[in-house]
Amino acid sequence: MEQKFFREPNTYVGHVELKVKDLARSLKFYKEVIGFQLLEQTEHQAVLSADGKTALLTIVQPENVMAKQGNTTGLYHYAILLPSRVELGKVLKHFIALNQPLGSSDHLVSEALYLSDPDGNGIEIYIDRHSSDWNWNHGQVEMTVDPIEAKSILAEAEGETWSGLPTGTVMGHIHLHVSELQKTEEFYSKGLGFDTVCRFGQQALFMSTGSYHHHIGLNTWAGVGAPAAPKNGVGLKVFSLVYPNEKSRGEVVEQLRTLGYEVQEEHGAFITEDPSGNRIQLSI
After folding, report:
1. Calpha distance 135→188 (Å, rounded)
2. How much is the pLDDT for 184?
């Protein structure tokens, strides 16, 4: 994993907060299956970490929580980026031992495993190939959906034992269901400062800063015009984007307001919503 994509001057996803139906059930899954450590817990909330210090994921059980609704905007998946292929081999071996249902894909830029939490929230666990091996054409990075070389990945972990998410794990990216792409692309580019680096036809696009393959994925696979999920429904509550400093965050707040988007200050944090109702915290 190349740390340069997750530090200044880049903007990247720092933290994801999810709504779940049963906190105890989700906490068991996230600790025993995914390998998070518990940082802190209250009656309705748990904060999770890979290194015992940095919060990467918060799970919340809202009052009168509703099960996940189909064909709405919101989370497609969030993606946990591991520091090495050995670690991907270790977690794959762990999932096989648990008989955990999995998807997988080689995206040329990365090798990825896919699964869902008990509420159907999508999770990707992946590693990047070195950025020198990515192919770029006219500002667009080449990505595809090929089968992974599972035997080769497992061979990396020969003799190794899985013991949870390793130090050096980061939130690699987030991929969202949105209701349309044109205004959404304007919001993330002219508003938040991301570049479009890959398009999948008229249905999906991928955006980043610093020439990463993507910090944000956006798709209309839940349907063009899909409504937002209910506020107390399972799914994404908010995700944070980390800006290099207060000046750059301030510029983004101004850009958003100029484009006609609301930015609210809540307890010292700046919160906005994309055109599909996905909530974003602007952090530094």
Report:
1. 23
2. 97
